């Protein structure tokens, strides 16, 4: 009889490579033998893992196979198609799902093409599959309420229905397609009578006092032998609105540009006034609000900007005694780039970041406010969710604007066992829109490239509008750039104007304050007017020119400077002498007025120096001395990325080397396993780390075999292996699981607490949680043994000695 | 349209490049739904507001038209969210309707039951709505018609008022078109108003709003109550009506502080209606004194709050609002919308100017450098005195002097806020002075003398801001104003905008003291003028030859 391990052994290298690529946990750490690969593939944790990421249709196929196998024997593909209710149109989709399930080693076909569930799959799927009550006999557990009695008549459970009361029909209808549990109707109603009748005829069984259960056999009969009403086909996004590509590109570019500008403003603000780091590591709610107001966005948006900038390594905790968040050195490099590469850095950081900025401002379990940049806000599944959401959008037609509900439905289909919360999907879509990965709700070219790992920066650059270097200046002191301003013009506007609105065009206003800012930055009125008139279409309007000149006239009428100490005297001649005194030159004395002299030395030094010149100064109250402190520029190096990147799947090459090792380790006779390296391996051996690590695994397996041979247990491994028996812990699990599924008996060698071993012939029922449950037919008892006490297993299909 | 004249910003402003070939077509297409915010020389800025979009709905435009227009003229792809918002906002208008039910009287009818449910749940509508008739109808007490409409606008579900009007007492009124006729835009305004039932007509100062009023009265031919800002304005309305319509002096009554006549056509001032004695409005009975068929509100943007409250009770009568601007300094545009009605007609100043119906104007700001002793006084003054000190700087007299002599022979108004300063100026210039203290008879005499050219220079206080028809004034010099009010600026400019016999340009001067709050306030007002598209320059007083 074919076995799972046998099937696995018969796979080609390519098939095994494909399997390892799709189930990376099987390859890490490297399995030594085919048997241990089989054991790992049938372990509960690996099955749970792979079931988490299969789609709804694959799950249906698995359920169908699991339900059908104990009843009709291993079903064929046709049986499965019929069981899930697939019509001719759906057949390709279902066939694809069957192929998937086989490729993932969740099902395996025997030589006749009948599909068997992988050992352990039944348990991994759980008791209630396809809306059916837990099955009766296949796992040794009984359905609640005892075994069905009278229904097991030859002509099927439904033959008695001909005599059923009318109300029985609706009762059965309600339970047929699941859930199979119903509340017992109040006594005295016709429904209650019907339920009583159905119970009496075994068509229902009692659950607890208030519930009845539709047994699996009855349900299947009512379903006409099918397991599902209809195949779960992928939801289509056909009715999603489709956006014009130009609109998508424009909105994406606008959002991208806006985000880059906001991040730049954020860095500037935090450079000037760095917010403190909370004790828990986050950003205070008040600082967040202040930042949001400064950037003219709402709090949630500000939290996202802060998180994204931090994820991109542009902001970090400076690690001072009272720590603050400040821009990093990397932020300077970032700021020097063009819009598109700046966006690229943010977008990549966003895609791979494990942060959940949408939780900022919500309360945690203890009722505390969640702060932005709080280390607690990382969730390992977030990067996967972002990719999954973008994947759904990428799979939709170009320009389709899927709603959050559409995306959520698609995700629900893709992995029904792990459905992200709708709120998280909404948040990812909002973030993607802010970033410009989406435009008008549809995936933009830049977003598509980002997801595919192509050059997203170039894709965005192509969508950014061509820069305009011209401004229309008007008499009301406004200016309009009829498009996206180029870098020079943007600088000029940053310098001398206040932006009033942005979009397809930029409108600015010149005010006395904004012109003053330009003058403060070192521009002269003539410079500014020259630059304006160079950029202007037509001449600079008279009121604007007047404004610039008028502000320049007032600019600098007050002067301020720094000095450390002063000397004042009523006698101007005395001070004039001091100012030119070469002995005091190191103190840099200078006259501000005939009777006031300032110096760069401290008052103490100044007094000492004056005394040394034979003068008799007295110290004055410190008031009036000017100390001008300039805040130092603060930078720290960004910490290594806190977010761990999504674990990569093993590359096919790596998987190939694993498979190669498996083949080597799986040679039945140690004599033939003397390594005859084939040319392929020789090339790999050329110093490659991967091959070396495979060799290590190989060596370990070989030494383990040697150890087993030395101890000489169970008359040597050679005999055990020849009969399909094993003492390898990983392998014996497979043998036990296969036996449990096939309901055959095995010889089990158990080591008792006293260290003595004993052999018993048992029928395994279930291997779960590190324990074997088995029936001992000789003693007619059930026993449970910890797997680590089992030293060897040997199939008993050859009569036991 | 890759290079259309319009740029649609995501903050709902529309930028129209006026030098573009299609600018005219575009302007006409967007005018019904977008409010012109400013119109300087190169790029006009329009704004999409809920009220503007609802005005468009009231005028029969639908969201599809608006969206198509934006898409047609836009140079860049239109922000998607904005299009969605436009459609959403416009769809809110008229989902509720006020209708007359033959059995139940006034009924609020919903085309969408959910909207009615939402509205009824609001605390604001509590007490305004009566018994619910079915899913979509609820009784409204007739006296709450206006109040309800106000509340519904605030809730974002403006109701379409289809409940109709009482006919009012018929009274024959005809236009006497002897040697003149309504200008085309005035005719359109009358038609637009009458077709819509009630609403506001927006025309620039000097464009003949009184005649639109007269036209509406002739069309309605019912007894009419006209509400105006002050007595002088009331007399002008009366004179104009006597001259332009078949009405005789006996048919027109004045209801003001001095006279209380109620006649088929009665002109009342806001002031008398809002006079309170012992906490009670004593002249409310005027509103019910006759069965008025039409109520005309002059200068709607100045309507005082109590008039709004009274108007809420007059919803069954046709209402015509006349104004130069819908902008209210107090931001109560939505009450004008809900109580007087939607905008029914609008023509930008520049259009009417280019058609020659109002004079072109040039605005000049003259900056006066204060002498040192005045600067010191100013710098040390209490903040509340600063504006007065700056506005009444003595040097301004010399500037006015030089301006008056520069425009010698032209009809010149000198406008100010502070009486001392005006007295000074009048004395300095040897000109007559009109203030609030001047008797109405004296005012009439001086205005008449000014109109006939007997006197060329007149010094006036803010009493002359409104509704005084001085067709030949071509130079206005303002020396002080009320803290930078844009609306006052529009009014004062309006004084000199009647088309001149020789078609010459009007001049509007503002004299300000440099580096003071006066200059800041002036900047505010002048921004308004520049936004209206008036050529606008700043000169130094020294350049006019005025010594420091």
UniProtKB/TrEMBL annotation, chain A:
InterPro entries in UniProt: XPB/Ssl2_N
Pfam families: Helicase_C_3 (PF13625)
Domain Helicase XPB/Ssl2 N-terminal, first and last residues per copy: 471-592
Region Disordered, annotated ranges: 129-157, 638-726
Molecular-function GO term, any one: helicase activity
Signal peptide range: none
Protein name: Helicase-associated domain-containing protein
Keyword terms, alphabetized: ATP-binding, Helicase, Hydrolase, Nucleotide-binding
Annotated Low complexity bias: 697-726
Organism: Cellulomonas avistercoris
TrEMBL record, chain B:
Domain Helicase C-terminal residues, every copy: 399-545
EC number: 5.6.2.4
Reaction(s) the record says it catalyses: ATP + H2O = ADP + phosphate + H(+); Couples ATP hydrolysis with the unwinding of duplex DNA by translocating in the 3'-5' direction
Record field: transmembrane: none
Keyword Isomerase appears in the UniProt entry: yes
Domain of life assignment: Bacteria
Pfam families in UniProt: ERCC3_RAD25_C (PF16203), Helicase_C_3 (PF13625), ResIII (PF04851)
Keywords associated with the record: ATP-binding, Helicase, Hydrolase, Isomerase, Nucleotide-binding
PANTHER family: GENERAL TRANSCRIPTION AND DNA REPAIR FACTOR IIH HELICASE SUBUNIT XPB, RAD25/XP-B DNA REPAIR HELICASE
Family recorded in the similarity comment: Belongs to the helicase family. RAD25/XPB subfamily.
Name of this chain's protein: DNA 3'-5' helicase
């Amino acid at each position: 009889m074919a076995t799972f391990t046998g099937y696995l052994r018969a796979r080609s290298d390519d098939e095994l490579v494909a399997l390892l690529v799709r189930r990376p946990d099987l390859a890490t750490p490297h399995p030594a033998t085919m048997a241990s690969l089989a054991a790992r593939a049938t372990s509960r944790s690996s099955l749970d893992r792979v079931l988490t990421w299969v789609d709804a249709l694959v799950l249906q196929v698995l359920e169908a196979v699991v339900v059908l196998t104990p009843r009709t024997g291993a079903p064929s593909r046709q049986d499965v198609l019929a069981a899930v209710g697939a019509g001719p149109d759906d057949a390709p989709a279902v066939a694809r799902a069957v192929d998937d399930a086989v490729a993932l080693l969740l099902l395996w076909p025997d030589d006749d093409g009948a599909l068997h569930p992988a050992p352990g799959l039944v348990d991994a799927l759980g008791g209630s599959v396809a809306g059916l009550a837990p099955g009766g006999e296949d796992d040794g557990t009984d359905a609640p309420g005892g075994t069905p009695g009278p229904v097991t008549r030859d002509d099927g459970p439904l033959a008695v229905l001909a005599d059923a009361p009318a109300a029985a029909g609706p009762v059965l209808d309600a339970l047929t397609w699941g859930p199979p549990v119903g509340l017992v109707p109040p006594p005295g109603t016709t429904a209650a009578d019907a339920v009583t009748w159905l119970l009496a005829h075994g068509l229902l069984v009692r659950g607890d006092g208030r519930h009845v259960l539709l047994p699996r056999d009855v349900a299947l009969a009512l379903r006409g032998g099918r397991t599902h009403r209809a195949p779960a086909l992928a939801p289509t996004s056909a009715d999603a609105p489709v956006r014009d590509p130009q609109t998508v590109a424009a909105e994406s570019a606008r959002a991208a540009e806006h985000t880059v500008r906001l991040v730049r403003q954020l860095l500037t603000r935090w450079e000037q006034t760095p917010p403190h780091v909370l004790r828990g590591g986050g950003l205070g709610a008040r600082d967040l609000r202040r930042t949001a107001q400064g950037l003219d966005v709402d709090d949630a948006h500000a939290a996202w900007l802060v998180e994204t900038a931090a994820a991109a390594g542009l902001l970090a905790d400076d690690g001072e005694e009272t720590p603050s968040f400040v821009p990093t050195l990397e932020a300077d490099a970032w700021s020097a780039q063009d819009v598109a590469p700046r966006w690229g850095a943010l977008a990549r950081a966003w895609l791979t970041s494990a942060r959940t900025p949408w939780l900022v401002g919500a309360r945690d379990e203890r009722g505390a406010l969640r702060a932005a940049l709080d280390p607690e806000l990382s969730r390992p599944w977030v990067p996967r969710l972002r990719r999954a959401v973008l994947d759904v959008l990428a799979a939709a037609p170009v320009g389709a604007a899927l709603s959050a509900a559409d995306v959520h439905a698609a995700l629900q289909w893709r992995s029904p066992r792990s459905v992200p919360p709708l709120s998280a999907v909404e948040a990812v879509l909002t973030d993607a829109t802010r970033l410009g990965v989406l435009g008008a709700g549809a995936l933009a070219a830049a977003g598509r490239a980002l997801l595919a790992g192509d050059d997203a920066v170039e894709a965005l650059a192509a969508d950014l509008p061509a820069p305009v270097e011209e401004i229309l200046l008007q008499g009301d002191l406004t200016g309009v750039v009829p498009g996206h301003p180029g870098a020079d013009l943007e600088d000029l506007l940053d310098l001398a104007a206040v932006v009033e609105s942005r979009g397809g065009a930029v409108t600015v206003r010149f005010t006395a304050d904004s012109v003053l800012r330009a003058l403060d930055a070192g521009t002269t009125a003539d410079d500014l007017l020259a630059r304006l008139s160079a950029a202007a279409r037509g001449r600079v309007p008279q009121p604007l020119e007047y404004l610039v000149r008028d502000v320049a006239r007032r600019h600098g009428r007050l002067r301020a400077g720094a000095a450390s100490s002063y000397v004042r005297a009523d006698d101007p001649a005395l001070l004039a002498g001091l100012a030119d005194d070469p002995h005091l030159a190191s103190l840099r004395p200078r006259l501000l007025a005939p009777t006031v002299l300032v110096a760069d030395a401290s008052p103490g030094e100044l007094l000492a120096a004056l005394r040394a010149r034979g003068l008799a100064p007295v110290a004055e109250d410190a008031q009036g001395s000017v100390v001008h402190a300039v805040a130092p520029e603060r930078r720290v190096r960004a910490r290594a990325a806190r977010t761990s990147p999504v674990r990569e799947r093993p590359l096919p090459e790596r998987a190939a080397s694993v498979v190669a090792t498996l083949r080597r380790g799986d040679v039945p006779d140690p004599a033939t396993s003397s390594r005859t390296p084939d040319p392929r391996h020789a090339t790999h051996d050329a110093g490659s780390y991967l091959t070396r690590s495979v060799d290590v695994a190989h060596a370990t397996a070989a030494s383990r075999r040697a150890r087993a041979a030395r101890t000489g247990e169970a008359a040597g491994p050679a005999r055990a292996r020849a009969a399909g028996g094993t003492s390898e812990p990983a392998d014996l699990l497979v043998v036990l699981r296969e036996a449990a599924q096939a309901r055959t008996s095995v010889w089990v060698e158990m080591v008792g607490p006293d260290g003595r071993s004993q052999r018993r012939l048992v029928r395994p029922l279930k291997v779960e949680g590190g324990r074997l449950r088995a029936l001992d037919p000789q003693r007619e008892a059930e026993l449970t043994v910890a797997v680590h006490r089992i030293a060897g297993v040997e199939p008993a299909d050859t009569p036991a000695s | 349209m890759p290079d259309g004249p319009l740029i649609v910003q995501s903050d709902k402003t529309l930028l129209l490049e006026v030098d573009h070939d299609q600018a005219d077509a575009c302007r006409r297409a967007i005018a019904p739904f977008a409010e012109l915010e400013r119109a300087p020389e190169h790029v006009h800025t329009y704004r999409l507001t809920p009220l503007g979009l609802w005005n468009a709905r009231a005028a029969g435009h639908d969201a599809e038209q608006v969206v198509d227009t934006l898409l047609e003229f836009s140079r860049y792809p239109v922000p998607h969210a904005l299009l969605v918002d436009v459609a959403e906002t416009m769809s809110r208008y008229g989902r509720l309707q006020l209708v007359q039910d033959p059995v139940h009287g006034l009924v609020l009818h919903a085309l969408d039951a959910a909207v009615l449910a939402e509205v009824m749940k609001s605390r604001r509508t509590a007490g305004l709505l009566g018994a619910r008739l079915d899913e979509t109808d609820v009784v409204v007490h007739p006296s709450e018609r206006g109040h309800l409409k106000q509340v519904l606008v605030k809730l974002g579900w403006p109701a379409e008022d289809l409940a109709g009007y009482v006919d009012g007492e018929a009274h024959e009124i005809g236009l006497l078109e002897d040697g003149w006729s309504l200008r085309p835009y005035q005719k359109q305004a009358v038609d637009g108003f009458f077709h819509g039932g009630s609403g506001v007509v927006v025309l620039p100062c000097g464009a003949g709003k009184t005649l639109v009023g007269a036209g509406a009265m002739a069309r309605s031919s019912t007894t009419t109550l006209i509400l105006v800002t002050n007595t002088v304005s009331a007399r002008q309305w009366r004179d104009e009506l006597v001259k332009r319509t078949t009405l005789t002096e006996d048919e027109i009554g004045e209801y003001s502080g001095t006279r209380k006549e109620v006649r088929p056509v009665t002109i009342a001032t806001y002031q008398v209606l809002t006079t309170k004695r012992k906490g009670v409005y004593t002249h409310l009975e005027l509103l019910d004194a006759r069965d008025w068929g039409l109520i005309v509100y002059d200068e709607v943007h100045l309507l005082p709050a109590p008039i709004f409250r009274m108007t809420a009770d007059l919803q069954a009568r046709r209402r015509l609002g006349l104004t130069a601007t819908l902008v209210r300094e107090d931001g109560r545009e939505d009450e004008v919308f809900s109580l007087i009605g939607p905008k029914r007609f609008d023509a930008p100043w520049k259009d009417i100017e280019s058609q020659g119906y109002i004079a072109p104007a040039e605005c000049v700001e003259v900056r006066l450098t204060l002498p040192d002793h005045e600067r010191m006084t100013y710098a040390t003054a209490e903040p509340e005195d600063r504006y007065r000190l700056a506005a009444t700087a003595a040097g301004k007299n010399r500037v006015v002097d030089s301006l008056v002599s520069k425009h010698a022979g032209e009809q010149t108004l000198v406008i100010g806020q502070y009486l001392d300063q005006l007295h000074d100026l009048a004395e300095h210039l040897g000109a007559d002075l009109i203030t609030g203290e001047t008797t109405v008879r004296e005012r009439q005499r001086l205005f008449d003398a000014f109109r006939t050219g007997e006197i060329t220079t007149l010094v006036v206080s803010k009493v002359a801001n409104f509704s005084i028809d001085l067709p030949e004034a071509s130079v206005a010099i303002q020396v002080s104003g009320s803290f930078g009010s844009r609306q006052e600026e529009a009014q004062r400019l309006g004084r000199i905008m009647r088309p001149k016999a020789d078609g010459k340009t009007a001049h509007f001067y503002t004299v300000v003291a440099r580096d003071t709050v006066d200059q800041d306030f002036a900047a505010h007002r002048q921004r308004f003028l520049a936004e209206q598209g008036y050529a606008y320059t700043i000169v130094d007083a020294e350049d006019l030859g005025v010594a420091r």
